Amino acid sequence: MSVTAAKGFVASGVACGIKASGDRDLSLVATSDGVAVPAAAVFTDNKMTAAPVVVSGRHLGVTGGMAAAVILNSGNANAATGDPGQDDALAMCAATATGVGCGTEEVLVCSTGLIGIPLPIETIVAGVPALVAARNPDGGTDAAEAIRTTDTHRKETVVAVGDSAAVVGGMAKGAAMLAPNMATMLAVLTTDAAAEPGQLRQILRDAVSTSFNRLMTDACRSTNDTVILLASGAAGPVDGGDLAAAVASACADLAGQMAGDAEGATKVVRLSVTGAASDADAEAGARQIARSALCKCSWFGQDPYWGRLASELGSAGIEFSSESISVSYGGVTVADGGVAIDHDAAAVAAHMAQRNLEIVCDLGIGTGSFTVLTNDLTHQYIDENTGGS
């Protein structure tokens, strides 16, 4: 189990006909009894905001942070669809509310898929009764399968909340357009720990900032990004710090799974910038490298071309000295003081041949640091994203 590992939740995933392949494309996570529980969400900051993001945000505002269900569809993003798109998102909520037995405003909605194409709302609404009927405590796997688009596998997680009986469960999708803030991604997290909406909001914001918001694959920001957290309270009160740590761990796990499944990627790169004048400078530098096509291509070619990293840092608009920077791959320093140094080339080559790369750029100026998860750029990525696919 994943998203239903926490007590008090059920889930399901069915094929309603959005995807021509016949694969599952409609997903539901709901409270077992249809009663609204404390909820929180973090959404994309893309101003080209998709209809489901608008509707979900509005519903959380109306209820004061309470929700009984989340309905999600894949195969169509319901983005760039104007007022009719919002009507369709609302219709998804209304149909779900009828089946679950809650208020329409107590349902949150998510969509993922192609942008600018009207949602086949009649098909979706017709599929909701079967989706609701299929919900059960073991339905997390089906729900996670139903939100996949170009993902090669479902993404799930379960984390214990300290030494308590409570857990945090979750599911996510995401394989491209993974850039702050957050990614082309949807995630639903549940916990059976007791918590209030305000507490959940802060916990979720903090968790997203150290996980999904540090994930960059192609520097493209989506219209639909949504992370939702629901708390049933079925396991009773827990230590607030333990709950925050568990949610952060669950988000980090899902973000790592996304990095590993990025479209066409052959490398997962953990890139750290240290020794910066400030954490803000370190973040700007790390993100500059992570979005660089030149750097990404060098990783795909297994080439420890440290000069490309240094060049990106020097153009990042941060405090920088070419005479103090050092670069290491897999713990082996290849450049120091802004110049190449003797090193174990065989060890570096062996590291570059691995799937997971560890790269550190030390600016040698201060104590600021920041780490991002990113990937290489491959031929397969181009094939995946040609022709509107």
Provide an overview of this structure.
The protein folds into two domains: 9-260, L-amino peptidase D-ALA esterase/amidase; 268-384, ArgJ beta chain, C-terminal domain (Ubiquitin-like (UB roll)). Helices cover 33% and strands 26% of the residues. It has helices at 51-63, 82-100, 121-133, 140-146, 197-209, 240-260, 279-290, 293-300, 306-314, 345-352, 379-384, and strands at 9-14, 26-31, 37-43, 66-67, 69-74, 107-112, 155-160, 167-173, 186-193, 226-236, 268-276, 326-329, 332-336, 339-340, 356-362, 368-375. Strand 12 (326-329) and strand 13 (332-336) form a beta hairpin. Helix 7 (279-290) crosses helix 9.
Order of helices and strands: EEEHEEHEHHEEEHEHEHHHEEEHEEH
In CATH terms, the superfamily of the largest domain is L-amino peptidase D-ALA esterase/amidase
Contiguous uncertain segments of 5+ residues:
177-183
- How many structural domains does the protein architecture include? 2
* Overall average residue pLDDT: 92
CATH topology name of the largest domain, in short, is L-amino peptidase D-ALA esterase/amidase
